[in-house]
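FORM 7B - TANDEM STRUCTURE REPORT

SECTION 1: FIRST PROTEIN
SEQUENCE AND TOKENS:
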Amino acid sequence: MTSVPSTSIASARIRVTNNVITSQVATALLHGLFPDSSPASHIVHIQPSSIDSLEPTYSCPAADLLRNSYASSSGGSNAAIWTEHLSDAQSVYAALDKVSGIATNDTAGWHSSFDHYYDNLSAKQCHSLKLPCSVNDTSLCISQEQANTVYRIGNWEYSYIFRDAPDSTAYSALHYGAYVLELKSRLESTINGTSGLKYVHNVAHDGSISPLLGILQIAVMVWPGMGSEVVFELYSASKNQYFIRVLWSGQPMTTSLPLGKNGVLDMVPIDDFFNYITGTVGANGAALYKACSGI
């Protein structure tokens, strides 16, 4: 991460979620971005945990019902693909549980998806740590082949939940629509000159980036790894001509949207982008609230 010499800390905004790890990241981020600034000027923004749109933690019963209908073991016939993939993975779970000691009838979510195992194994390998071994038999360890299987299944799960299932876009829009509407409002404020912000940096989670990628209909969905970034850049050709570029891992994002050239979000007219948000998420927070409440 390089410093941002053209942007003063007064025109920047750093935001975190209520998870303390994002605050720890933001602390290092501020020192890297603004190395000559005083720590006293380092202000980090956060929303109350009950309404946080960045993580997100705001209540949206309609989103919860929709996801459970296609990505849970209680979803019925609409969740047949999800339950079949869990059934097919029983031998994988059995091998992992033998090492971890997780009970077959666990109720903490270890067997409702591969989320917990994926997080555990990827965190270790991201920090160059060895894969775990059984505390009861140190010769019994998770192999790299098993870890790769977890990563493969985990990527499929995230792609299905946020991108591939027929209701995944609707779910992503409900679940993460509040943040996208905030993004739209912030861009509008910059365009109409009511905001002095030049740089905004949000520190969030894989569960934050994933629905954002779902809303944007990224062409190839993956489980966002540690350090993943989605960047929105606003450009102007003249006072009344604005364009947006969306970067994923440093490159213009390729999507299946009818925006840009062949869905590549590179210098897309801002009005086209705004119209897509309005059509997908809703015109404003009131519309999203009604949708979340099933009104």
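SECTION 2: SECOND PROTEIN
SEQUENCE AND TOKENS:
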Amino acid sequence: MKNKRSILIFSLATVFILAACNNTSTHQNHTQHSNGGEQENASAHQEHGKQGQAEHMNHQKHGQEEKITVDTQWSSMIQKADQAGEIRIVIKDKQGKPIPEFKINHEKKLHLIAVSEDLSYFDHLHPEWKGNGEFIVKTQFPIGGKYRLYADFIPQGGSQVIAKHDLDIQGETKNEPLEVEKTWTKAVDGKEITLQGGSNLKANRETQLTFSLKDERTKQPITNLQQYLGAVGHVVIISDDQEQYLHVHPLEEKAQGPDAKFATTFPSKGVYKIWGQFQHQGKVITVSYVVNVVE
């Protein structure tokens, strides 16, 4: 491949936006890519309400829906590892007109999740809104290989959309095997974090995941977690084949620790990686776990 910079423009990703759902139903968006007519199921945000508190889960398809076509155009100036460059996303309606406005969802109009093929690399980005349907973010990737990007957004008046896109980055590659956790306590950035609910998981059954945070040195519970993107924390879950994507919000958004509780439903059996993100003393902490889900 030539070393000069070139703009890679990829096929349109056609995403069906489902009609807005009430807090007690779940919906799954279907992302259909124009390259070869391939259709992908994008397991999206679940939001789930109970009386007296807002509960968030992954939106999955169910019930009545109104299909509104959205075309997502991706372009990238990043060709090789450690090369900083821009990724551009343009979102249009079925008439080819740019989407004029997007709903603010946890303080941002678009969340962009990037993972490597082996799920060893994870990044949660927030592209800058340029108007006229366009978002731009500058980033780079640490090693070569395949990466999958998930654009998570809500067009004004529509419902949750997850658009997927793949990048192939030049450079030395590596492949770290996914191994299901044997212990549920990890030390990250001076914090001792324990995940409860990561074992004995079953597909299509509501599950509660609880992250408990302590100071690694003093073992004292952390009770002053800061709001991160409008909540005590965020959880992203991706299957090992990268077909299932879940972005989960906490049951109690204004909690400050030491526990952060999330409810979700794994849509199918298999191995998944979970990333939990929290903020303490101005620093975002990311902890990950690999789990196995049975039927």
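SECTION 3: OBSERVATIONS ON SECOND PROTEIN
Residues 166 and 256 are 36 Å apart (CA to CA).
The chain has no helices and 23 strands.

SECTION 4: SIGNATURE
Preparer initials: ____
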